[in-house]
Amino acid sequence: MTLIGWIQIALYCAVVLALVKPLGLYMTRVFTGERTLLSPVLGPVERGLYRLAGLDERQEQHWLAYAGAMVVFHILGFLVLYGILRLQAVLPLNPADQSAVAPDLAFNTSASFITNTNWQSYGGESTLSYLSQMLGLTHQNFLSAASGMAAAVALIRGFSRASTRTLGSFWVDLTRATLYVLLPLCIVYTLFLVWQGIPQTLGASVDATTLEGAKQTIALGPVASQVAIKLLGTNGGGFFNANAAHPFENPTALANFVQMVSIFAIGAALTNVFGRMVGDERQGWAILAAMGVLFIAGVAVTYWAEAAGTPLLHGLGLEGGNLEGKEVRFGIVGSALFAVITTAASCGAVNAMHDSFTALGGMIPLINMQLGEIIVGGVGAGLYGMLIFVVVAIFVAGLMVGRTPEYLGKKIEAKEVKMAMLGILCLPLMMLGFTALATVLPAGLAGPANAGPHGFSEILYAYTSAAANNGSAFAGLSANTLFYNSTLALAMLVGRFFVKIPALAIAGSLAAKKTVPASAGTFPTHGGLFVGLLVGVIVIIGGLTFFPALALGPIVEHLAGQAGQTFATGG
Amino acid sequence: MLTHLRPALVLTAALTAITGIVYPLAMTGIAGAIFPAKAAGSLVERDGVVVGSALLGQNFASERYFHGRPSATVAPDPADASKTVAAPYNASSSGGSNLGPTSRALLDRVKDDVARLKSENPAAPVPMDLVTTSGSGLDPDISPEAALFQVPRVAKVRGLPEDRVRALVAAQTQDRLLGILGEQRVNVLALNLALDAGR
């Protein structure tokens, strides 16, 4: 670890924090329907859309109608995307003559993109046409992210409202998130990325003649516009197979820095939206503080582990950190920081190959996802995931003092806690259940590229990433098979909707309750004690659930590596 | 559920058109007008021939050139499409080795590379980045140490004084942005073009 490395980390945190308030203010105005700077331009477009759709923007929905609208919307998106992928061979904008995507891969990819996971069983440049990338994937990048923000805003309304049956309109929240938040940011961001060197062209690939006279076929495409939304929407699906490690997706140190900021920007600012909408910004800062504690701890471990390097390479007389799978322009710190951010935030874009990280360095991304990606998290998904943990933490606090727990004046009762536990438990069920299945079935065991405990980690990482809707991978796993495509798709769908729908149920139940005025006995939820309690609950629940599985994978690999043991594939 | 169908259909169609067609096409048009060279992939031409992209590494095996990092990219096997063969710096199929920290395949590969580099330049320690593959397999850069490590070989083959080659490396070394962000690095293609230009 170096001083300059820590300065980069500190600078990163400072920039993200500086964006929280302005972006939070802007998004609060957007979701409460107030006028913003962009209203003169976008207002007519927005109202036109509602008229076409036969919507009254003041017509609000009960939580069941809100959830129903969301489900119908995603089923439709799924069908459209599946259709495009299956038909890409006969559709336009296919200069490389890519053939139709196979049924199981198309199913997996469609599930992956509607759930904001962007798990990729395929190599983008060698599988998809430009039309599939643009019309199929880019638009789902927007809409799955917008839908996540909508759910978070609905849950916030559950806390901020009292004695009402409605949570707002899914259609209005979805449209506003897309038009006012994601689209304008992406337009500016795309231009920045092209300025840094990311291609944005519909031209076919170019054949270069290298200095040594060989032919190098350079894949191109409308890359920058997709990279912008893949990060801002915490989608993570790359245009190219190597994702943000590819110089065309992440060409410079500045691009890398801004990409890292953009992954956290909206998610972090949503905590401020929460604070503003419940009428006390300190509540938002307390939640962000809990996220920050977990984040810094993760960064410190991964940076330390990667900078320390591996005994395997040091045994050959080499010095320095682990550079296998990393790019020179980002170095150790730029890769380690990116890995922690992308898994904390449900993004899943990678600028280095996590599969080649040290055992402990690769364990932190795994833990980040297993906790449910509540450290800033996916846009929207992170906040509603964290608020589910808040419900449990408040419940635990209530048990300790023998008093009905309250949060922001709302009594937390049996229904909320049951729904919170449903959301929390479905993730380990998917992650650990499918991992167990894959390790006993021949179809599962055919997947890993590495032998020994690292092979187990590859499988565990895949289901963890899928259920948590992250999408990053220990990419050595051969996941483009019928078994992995279908089980991973199932994990993604359950991991998304069995958290999101319980979150909306909590919102509906809370919105119907009266607000209890704070008294001397009320547990203050904006101070250090609450932050500590929340972090403790998260770590205990995560630790109890996942420690055995981690012991079989990264921990045993670390110990074996320290003892100088290696594992041969096929052995 | 039926009440949701009309807004679902209309908003899916309209937002798909906006975000999936208008947005990428408009950005392609605008970016192409403002940054034409970059939007087209930062292609580098020499004597009217495209020799590569300034952002992508390419395979250098000749002793006359500085070498980039090892690359783990592959291409379909011409004999059997279900298999792949090694194809370093394949810019139409990016990817890393994905070998883990206790992989014997990784150990064997690095061991061979270290032995080869040690025989080439026994005086200096072997730089880590010259024996590890990058995440993309297309890393355009090497560390300044990795470039300096190769100076004796390149100077000897080209019959140039080592000091001149070393000065060339220094001129091509890019510092961290504002002295803080990223790492010091040398773009291998740019360095080799400068080498050829100065012959």
Q: How would you sum up the global shape of chain B?
A: extended
Secondary structure class of chain B reads alpha+beta
Mean pLDDT of chain B: 92
Oligomer: heterodimer
Alpha carbon gyration radius of chain A: 23 Å
Name the descriptors.
heterodimer; A: 571 residues; mainly alpha; two-stranded antiparallel sheet; 19 helices; 4 strands; globular; B: 199 residues; alpha+beta; 3-stranded antiparallel beta sheet; 6 helices; 7 strands; 44% helix; extended
Structure description:
The complex is a heterodimer of chains A (571) and B (199). In chain A, strand 1 (206-209) and strand 2 (215-218) form a beta hairpin. Chain A is mainly alpha-helical and 571 residues long. In chain A, helix 1 packs across helix 9. The two termini of chain A are 35 Å apart. Chain A has helices at 3-31, 39-53, 63-87, 103-114, 124-127, 130-160, 170-196, 223-232, 253-277, 281-308, 311-314, 331-344, 359-370, 381-401, 414-440, 442-445, 453-467, 482-511, 528-562; strands spanning 206-209, 215-218, 406-407, 410-411. In chain A, strands 1-2 form a two-stranded antiparallel ribbon. Chain A has a domain at 385-562. By secondary structure, chain B is α+β, with helices and mostly antiparallel strands. Chain B has six helices and seven strands, in the order ααββββαβααββα. Chain B has helices at residues 5-34, 36-39, 104-120, 144-158, 162-172, 188-197, and strands at 43-46, 49-53, 74-76, 84-86, 141-142, 173-174, 185-187. A three-stranded antiparallel β-sheet of chain B has the order 5-7-6. In chain B, strands 1-2 form a two-stranded antiparallel sheet. The mean pLDDT of chain B is 92. At the A-B interface, helix 1, helix 2, helix 3, helix 6 and helix 7 of A face helix 1, strand 2, helix 3, strand 5 and helix 6 of B.
